[in-house]
């Protein structure tokens, strides 16, 4: 029987969310035109950035998991991902996916692996947290080129974002289960003297295909429908948060920066609001890096909507986001002056950031990538994913060969 304290907690949370919903409805009714513009902007971000950046990789992930490629890669990389990140070998596919596709692709893959019984709930939670990254399209094309007007700064933000995220995963690797404590692969896949590692990899791939049992046509249809459903869920969150941010910024105290509330709630609008502030480039890079590491409450709820129905918590996810944000902010501040010396004229000077022409009204936010930029970046992201996976396989085989010798 539930205790009085838990019942009171659920009642208070229900009242708070109900009151917030009523206030939001009142604000929308009071200014329907501005609310419509804000929701339209959220729709534009979803359609022009999130949808094309995620859909191919979400479909690819479902096919890769069903084909057994991720499982075979997990057998190959298990000793190294356990030792370095404290994660199962399947992280060898999920983390590159998060690096290239952006959030919440890694959360979707982690939930699928847990539902298939390949990893534990704790491993799925930590894997989704360690692989939660913004996509290269967001950082280089949208933020670097569109918001700030400096592609070089976008590349710097991408490098800092990746390094800080992997550093946070390495820092927190001891918070999960100990290496090797929950190997979910069958005993038949353990290395032996009579079987080479490649034989084990292909055996696991064949076993995964047999367990799935779907034809390619059925698999492709299921992958597309599931991916579109996930993206529709993401789009709903983005539309609601665009309106919430618009309402809050109208009532936000003038002595506090609007980028603070925007960045805490939604990453895209937060980065846009920060880019139009009159900040030194180093401070701007640190601020946006911290927001990228945190990811925004909107992204957190998107991930929760994927993990929670599968029975996976998000406590570790929140801790990862805080550490990722702190590491990214420090890295941006520490690396700024050395990079200015090593690459003079590449990064923007104090007057090199284009913010004067930006309309302060958040509902007029329009710097979205063109379809040509999207196509080019999707091609680059696909090549990067293939290169990272191929490099991981080569390194794993080389290290295993050194161990055998």
Automatic annotation (TrEMBL):
Q: Where are the transmembrane segments?
A: 12-33, 45-70, 90-114, 234-252, 284-306, 318-336, 378-399
UniProt entry keywords in alphabetical sequence: Membrane, Transmembrane, Transmembrane helix
Protein name as catalogued = Sporulation integral membrane protein YlbJ
Q: Which organism is it from?
A: Paenibacillus apis
């Amino acid at each position: 029987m539930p205790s009085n304290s838990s019942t009171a907690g659920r009642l208070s949370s229900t009242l708070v969310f109900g009151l917030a919903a009523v206030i939001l409805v009142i604000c929308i009714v009071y200014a329907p035109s501005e609310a419509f513009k804000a929701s339209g902007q959220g729709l534009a971000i979803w359609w022009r950035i999130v949808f094309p950046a995620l859909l191919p990789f979400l479909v690819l992930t479902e096919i890769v998991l069903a084909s057994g490629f991720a499982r075979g890669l997990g057998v190959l990389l298990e000793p190294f991902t356990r030792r370095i990140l404290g994660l199962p070998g399947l992280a060898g596919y999920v983390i590159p996916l998060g690096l290239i596709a952006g959030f919440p692709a890694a959360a979707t893959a982690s939930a699928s692996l847990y539902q298939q019984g390949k990893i534990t709930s704790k491993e799925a939670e930590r894997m989704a947290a360690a692989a939660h990254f913004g996509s290269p399209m967001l950082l280089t094309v949208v933020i670097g080129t569109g918001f700030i007007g400096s592609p070089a700064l976008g590349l710097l933000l991408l490098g800092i974002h990746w390094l800080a995220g992997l550093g946070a995963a390495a820092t927190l690797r001891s918070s999960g289960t100990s290496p090797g404590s929950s190997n979910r692969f069958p005993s038949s896949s353990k290395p032996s003297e009579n079987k080479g590692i490649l034989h084990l990899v292909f055996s696991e791939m064949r076993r995964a295909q047999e367990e799935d049992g779907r034809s390619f046509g059925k698999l492709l249809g299921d992958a597309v429908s599931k991916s579109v459903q996930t993206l529709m869920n993401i789009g709903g969150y983005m539309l609601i948060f665009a309106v919430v941010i618009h309402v809050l910024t109208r009532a936000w105290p003038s002595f506090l920066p609007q980028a603070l509330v925007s960045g805490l709630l939604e990453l895209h609008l937060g980065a846009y609001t920060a880019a139009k502030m009159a900040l030194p480039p180093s401070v701007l890079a640190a601020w946006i890096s911290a927001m990228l590491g945190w990811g925004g409450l909107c992204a957190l709820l998107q991930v929760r909507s994927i993990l929670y129905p599968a029975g996976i918590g998000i406590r570790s996810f929140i801790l990862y986001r805080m550490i990722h944000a702190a590491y990214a902010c420090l890295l941006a501040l520490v690396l700024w002056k050395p990079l200015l010396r090593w690459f003079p004229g590449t990064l923007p000077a104090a007057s090199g950031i284009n913010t004067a022409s930006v309309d302060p009204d958040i509902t007029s936010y329009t710097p979205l990538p063109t379809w040509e930029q999207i196509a080019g970046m999707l091609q680059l992201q696909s090549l990067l994913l293939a290169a990272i996976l191929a490099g991981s396989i080569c390194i794993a085989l080389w290290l295993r060969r050194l161990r055998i010798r």
